[in-house]
Amino acid sequence: HQKEEKITFDTYMDYVHPDDKSNVAKYIESAFSNKLLQEFSHRIVLKNNTVKTVQLIGEVICNHKGEVIEIIGICQDITSQLLIEQKLKDKNQLLLCAEQLTSIGYWRWKPKTNTVYWSENLYTMFGQPKDEELSFESYFNFIHPEDQNFVKEKVDASIADLNFHNFTHRIVTHNGEIKTIQIIGEVSADTYGNNL
Asked: pTM (2 decimals)?
């Protein structure tokens, strides 16, 4: 848009993607009636037909009578951010497919806080409900009783050496199925040599 050209609300609406015009109009109408502009995003079409996605954050200014006299705000181009997010979603979907095909899953454990993250397929492999909070004990309880001491030694050695000792052991799922899994990992530490 040329800077010297006069800008009105209609000027802005002319740039709004045809499929998003009614939604944008609803947000603006809501801003006038509720005296509050909710944060939202929509697409715009440039004069060269390039489509971008923008995010709007604003504030409604009223006079002493409560009448809207001005709406101010910022408009941020989030097109690249959305593309990155979509690529990440696509990669995660491919990773999930690869996990399912190869019967693998990835995990992360922070000993200091005992917080654990499992990938989706790891839940499936262990037969663990996805809505339950995880801890190291969640994993340890699956370990076959005859393998628990061995696993504890490997984990303790990995933390002490700051070098993960890969190992294989058995697990017992909730339905009593015995599986043999291989654990491969890497230890992360801060600059002081403390594990993270």
From this structure: 0.49
